[in-house]
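Narrative of activities, Objective 1.

The group set out to show that a structural description can be obtained from nothing but a protein's sequence at a throughput compatible with the screening campaign. Below is one input-output pair from the validation batch, recorded exactly as produced.
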Amino acid sequence: MEEDVAGPAASLWLFEKRDHDDVVRELRPWMETFCHPVQVERDGALCGWVQDGCALGAPEIDTSRCGPLTLCRENHVPEEPDELFADFERRPVQELVWTAGTRGRSSHLLLGYLMLALSRRFDTLIDFGGLLGYRYSIHQLPPDEEEHRLAESRRLVAGLPGKVWELPNETHVADSEFLATWLQHPKFHMIN
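Output recorded for this entry:
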């Protein structure tokens, strides 16, 4: 049973600045092909309730208890220092932050498949907002448990194809090839 509370989130890195309203105008008709309803909130957030996850390439999912997938209005420029992006060809100039309206496996899958489709559409990377293999911030753990979780996470992502980067702020960023494989993994989840 899905819980009626905020679910996972992730973001797409953009390497060219995009106006939020332009992104909404571009994505709304596309979302209307697999979501109903699709609406723009007063704050400019784009929300869609997925009716057909198969249109995203997802397996058959009961979406009846899933909340909306939302493109948040607070799409921002990453404020981290340039050194954080030293391993990348370009520095991201903006993030498109997406959230799932509820928790539960179905919401994690829908957000994952949405991020995969959008990363391919925008030819960009996915910022998971945390370490894969652990659903919450490891900073809330005792130091020995934090080291254990970090080692587990590194082992998990090292065995999957595609490119994945571990940023110094304990966040994984990956390409679409990695996410496509991660979606098929038995331990798949997004970050709450």
